[in-house]
Amino acid sequence: MLVAILALGACTNGTVQGTGEGEGRLAIVDDGNVVVLDADGSNRVAVTDVAPSGADRAFYFQPTWSPDGTLLAFSQISPERGIHVADPDTSGRWSLPTSSFPFYFHWSTGNELALLRNGESGLRLDTTSIADGALSELEQLDAGQPLYFSWSPSGTEMVTHIGSDRLEINIAGSAQALGPVPGQFQAPVWTDRGIIAIDHQGNDRYLALIDTTGDSSLLARVPGPTNFVATPDGSKIAAQSMRDSDALSVAYQTTPRLAAGRVVVIDVEGGDLQTVTENPAIAFFWSPDGRRLLVLDAVASGEARWSIWEDGEMSESVRFEPDPSFLRELLPFFDQYAQSVTLWSPDGSAFAFPGAIDGESGIWVKADGSAPQRVSDGTWVAWSSR
Fold first, then answer.
1. 122 — alpha (psi -120 to 50), left (phi > 0) or beta?
2. What's the pLDDT tens digit per position in 65-75?
3. Rounded CA gap, 382 and 70, in Å?
4. pLDDT digits (tens, 9 = 90+) for 35-45
5. Contact, 297 vs 281, CB < 8 A?
6. For labelling, which of 31, 155, 218, 257 has a CA lying 20 to 30 Å from the CA of 37?
7. Rounded to two decimals, what is the model's pTM?
8. How far is CA 322 from CA 74, 284, 378, in A?
9. CB-based contacts of 275-279 (< 8 A; 24+ apart in sequence)
10. How far is residue 24's CA from residue 346's CA, in Å, rounded to a whole number?
11. In terms of Cα–Cα distance, which of 135, 119, 204, 160 is closest to 339?
């Protein structure tokens, strides 16, 4: 467990450099409330009311930006459960009560919102949208556990990975199976180039690009459970496989084999592989332009470390102690969250994170060429796309 923090680099209270007008906004959770602010901590807008004290204290959870950066979806934990969508610029607000707590949101490229919550038979995948000035009634698309999904680029359908044996395209609640039983992974990724998933071929598992008919293009052989994230255009995949295979490799492979415990970047078109880390990482996230990979790993004395990989080179950025809720709620499922929220600024020159530096907790922004800046109290942060 990451519980300790040592003295780190100096922090200042100055303006965050490298971000400015038109560089998006941060959505944070501060003392149970949703707040929107600029990257330097200015222009704070309270999206939810000040949380009252006592037994009826309200708590809101994980605000998630729409793709155009105009709307926020978030859930209410107490005293009631429900979905909220807000426009921070107009104070517009749409709400929908739910019988169970929604804990994950993912917008389509349009205005449709998918969410996960607990149902009668495991996790439940629902959708809603803003229509006629209100959130539409929830439509259940599927259920099962575990359940991961990815919207199609058009935002009209999605691919779901449910349990250990279901990889399916879901169109308005009608599921179509995709080929053989999938391998060990969490979240598929649907890109313009196809659906990225792990595919079983005989006794071997491959990172593959799968089309909507189930045909696979094999990208790399993987030795075990694998996490992966793709650049926005789907041209590169960062992947990490965490266990050696028990089976012996055949004498000749037409696809490369990933070494276990390393983060590797694969060029989808050319097939080239580049090693990012020699040791396991906790999580990794592409910048919006796909040029940089933000990598989190654990270091000595319980610290975590953000590093940035760019042009084949890795450089350490900042050491910190992650916020416990960040460790618990996002990092174990980073490949799913990488599709719905971003820690990066729109231009890829800065990133934000919740945690503690030199014992001081809050929301931090680290821009190129400057020390990390503490911009607010808070335990959750998501950067808008514009």
1. left
2. 999 999 999 99
3. 13
4. 999 999 999 99
5. yes
6. 155
7. 0.90
8. 22, 14, 12
9. 276/238, 276/309, 276/314, 277/314
10. 6
11. 160
